[in-house]
Amino acid sequence: MPILDVGYRAWQGHRTPRSTRAMVVAETGIRLVWRNTWLKRILLFMAAPALVVGIFVGLFEQSVDRTSTRDAMQAFLRSPPAQRAAERAGFDLETAYTDPAAARHFAWSYLLLVLFRYPQAFGMIVVLGLIAPRLISYDLRSKGYLLYLSRPLTPAEYVLGKAGIVYFLLFMMAAVPSLLIYVAGLFLSTDPWAFAQTWDLPLRILAATLVLMIPTTAVALAMSALTQESRYAGFAWFAFWVVGAVSYQVLWLAAQVRRGIDPERMEFLGEYNSWMLFSPYETLGYMQMQIFGLAQGEPWAWGPWVVAIAMSILGYGIAYRRVARMLKA
After folding, report:
1. pLDDT per residue over 67-109, tens digit each?
2. Rounded CA Rg of the chain
3. Cα–Cα distance between 132 and 223 in angstroms, integer?
4. Is 17 inside any structural domain?
5. What is the dihedral of CA 170, 172, 174, 180, to 10 degrees?
6. Which SS3 state, helix, strand or coil, does residue 79 take?
7. How many CB atoms lie within 10 A of CB 32?
8. With the C-alpha atoms ordered 263, 269, 271, 276, is the resulting torsion angle positive or negative?
9. Can you tell me the distance from the alpha carbon of 226 to that of 223, in angstroms, rounded to the nearest whole number?
10. How many domains does the chain have?
11. Is 2 domain-assigned?
12. How far is 41 from 123, CA to CA, in rounded Å?
């Protein structure tokens, strides 16, 4: 009998279901990414803003029952950003001064939006700039994708597994702190109707997280797949956000100058207009504002959703096509 049989032998081991094979890629990538010391430091640093927002939620709940802290709550609601948010949401702040419990849904939604809009959004840009550029570009340079695709794994499952790494990080950064704040707010509240007034906020948190996850992951994977040098993908990632923000502000300022600087007619940065679509940051922020119900006083704008869906389809399509083409080469 032959000592060494080099012929084809079918795999006799256990096969995972096809629906879970992308999760194997994601799990492996998460373990490797989690070794990054800077990532752990950034995530720890990002816990501070979530703690501050949680404290504000607690103070608001204290002001509902205690008149001693009600003045601080009213000062918070009288701030210009809160007043503009109330106008957009179609909420009358005068009722909050006499019946603070009536403002619970608005106050919690506004605080959670601030958390999504600023610390979590900027943290997302930094974290993905450190992690995402290497996800596909490093495999293309080292031919590591051949190791993945030599197994019963399709290019689509490979891309989905790489996207799962980013999904996990963004979920930990955005959804988990916000959900913990919501649960803490319920425990700190003495009002038995608090849950009935805010039951939809967890669903809005998950929807806002999806809005943050899907388009940004698509853009990051596309940039990583278009080059074998991760530093080029990282530069393109940060330039994508910076150039978009600067373009929006320049175009917005030019529009204000063209119509004449009139305080009564002047639009605020962040109000919906067509120039907003040049800035990914403003576009995603306005979509999250709509999700949290803080844009009900304005006509529903479909432009940001169309742009986000188009960028998602284009980004994932580029990543898939690049990997599939390299496999055929």
Report:
1. 666 666 777 777 778 888 888 888 877 776 677 777 889 989 9
2. 24
3. 9
4. no
5. 170
6. coil
7. 12
8. positive
9. 5
10. 1
11. no
12. 11
Q: How many residues does the chain have?
A: 329
The angle subtended at Cα 172 by Cα 169 and Cα 174, nearest 5°, is 105
CA distance 326 to 328: 5
Q: With left for phi above 0 and alpha for psi between -120 and 50, is residue 189 left, alpha or beta?
A: beta
Residue 178 is which amino acid?
A: S
Q: What contacts 276, CB < 8 A, 6 or more positions away?
A: 248, 282, 283, 286, 303, 304
Decide: pTM greater than 0.85.
yes
Residue with tokens 């600067």: 246
SS3 call for 3: coil
Within-domain flag for 21: no
DSSP H helices in the chain: 21-33, 37-45, 47-65, 70-77, 80-89, 94-98, 104-115, 121-131, 133-142, 144-149, 155-170, 176-188, 194-198, 201-225, 230-259, 280-291, 303-328
**What parts of the chain have a pLDDT lower than 70?**
1-16, 65-72, 96-97, 149-150, 259-270, 328-329
Rounded to 5 degrees, what angle do the CA atoms 322, 325, 329 make?
135
**Positive/negative CA dihedral, 314, 320, 324, 329:** positive
Q: Which domain holds residue 304?
A: 34-328
The encoded tokens of residue 305 equal: 């959703």
The verdict on residue 260 lying in a domain is yes
